[in-house]
Amino acid sequence: MDRRDDVIKCIFLSEFHATVGTKIIDQSPKNYITKEIFDKVSNYVIPKVQLAYCFISISLNNLKILGFPIKIDNKTYIRNAFYFNLCFVFENFTRTFCFESIIKKFTEYLLSLELSTKFLSKLDTEKSKRLELMLNCIRSEINEYGSCMLLDEQNVLPLCVVPYYNDKLNEIDDMGEFSHKAPVLLDCFFENYSLESWDLTTKKIVPYINGFRHINRIAYLADVSITIVLQCVKHLVLLDVCVLVPAFQYSNIYRPTPKLKQLAKSTDVQKRAIEKCSKSELKKAKIRDILLLFASMTHGATLGELCVRFNPAKHNIDERKTVLFGLVEQLIRPIFKYPVAVNKNLFVGYDDYKKQNSFNNTLGIPISYKRQSLDNVKVTRNSFTGLKTLDEICMKTSSSTRQLEEQLACDKHVIVLLK
Is the pTM of this model over 0.70? Predict the structure, then answer.
């Protein structure tokens, strides 16, 4: 975080009082927002009902105020509703996007306190001191460290400044649904962070992340909602401590990238390759054999076919770890399969198609080409739009790769594009 720009000048909490109108309950530091300044912005601090639960940014007198107004409908209140807004104050040139998650999270915490104990609407001396301590703690620790572990009685609330990740967010959004992918924790996750500093969900799923289990499987093993796991993995990717790779299968196809030359030239990359790719610590793999395996990955050859031809175990190479290392270091890239349903197979005749694939499919396993009944067809052609990969379709339909490839091989109206 840039200490010169992204600094919290003040935090204040305001409410709409039934008799005096909008007022400040508390602020840190005291008297930073004067009555004159607040009177000018009070109509925007507690805005119209339509703007509740939305971020509001106000610029005034070289200051920028960011808030998240809340409205609670309840007949127990004097006007059948209670309004409050937690606001952060910055210098007017500060990029405030990275503080939105802190404001929203702490506001939701105050909302839960209000709903359970009337913490804000019935503020007494003890509650005022408690609120003051929380505001002071957040402002000082966020300004100093960029994060805050707020301790409030029996509650722990982790808050962290989220850097501007627009490019990375766009990259993740372009991937679409990624529950079929396998997350890989990078070395910096263990070097730069302590496991105790992470939230409870991260602590729960980290033991199951090994680069080979896909996110759906991790969610099942950790007994955590898939939605929460997806958000957690997305957070790890944004922090550059995790990358997503395709789930390992011997039917996968890979291609070397221009970065493969680093393996031949860089001694550091070679040392990491030997350490990560060797099958045994007692007898290390040779860099020549590792490089040869990567270079042998061509557009049409599956990993299973390469293993039959190359026999990695004979050269003390663990093919699973080798593929994972190549993907993380970007020495290789995956080739994805996109099934597309067409009215007529324009490439080959159906009889020729059956013959050429009878004993030469991507799994290297003979396929039975008996006409399948509609009851046996697990995936309909509506899924084959050309926009989803084979892995993603398998995950969505709970089918194995072999089952789906058998179905595709029997269907003359579906072609598979490699990209």
Answer: no
DSSP for residue 331:
S
Helices (H) and strands (E) counted in the chain, each on its own, are 16, 14
Fill in the DSSP letter of residue 4: T
Alpha helix ranges (H) inside 250-349: 261-265, 267-277, 287-295, 303-310, 319-328
Q: What is the mean pLDDT of residues 158-172?
A: 72
More confident residue, 299 or 11: 11
In this structure, what DSSP letter does residue 56 have? E
- What contacts 23, CB < 8 A, 6 or more positions away? 14, 15, 17
CB-based contacts of 38: which residues, under 8 Å, 6+ apart?
14, 24, 45
In DSSP terms, 13 is beta-bridged to 26, 86
Asked if 221 and 209 touch (Cβ cutoff 8 Å), the reply is no
The radius of gyration of the chain from alpha carbons, rounded to an integer in Å, stands at 29
pLDDT value of residue 146? 87
| CB 136, CB 152: distance < 8 Å | no
DSSP 3-state of 273: helix
- Summarised one tens digit per residue, pLDDT across range 14-54 is 999 888 889 999 999 999 999 999 999 999 999 988 899 99
Rounded CA-CA distance 42/35 in Å is 10
- How buried is residue 75: exposed, middle or buried, by Cβ count under 10 Å (0-12/13-18/19+)? exposed
Task: Reduce the DSSP state of residue 253 to 3 states and report it.
Answer: strand
What count of residues does the chain have? 419
Strand partners, 152: 155
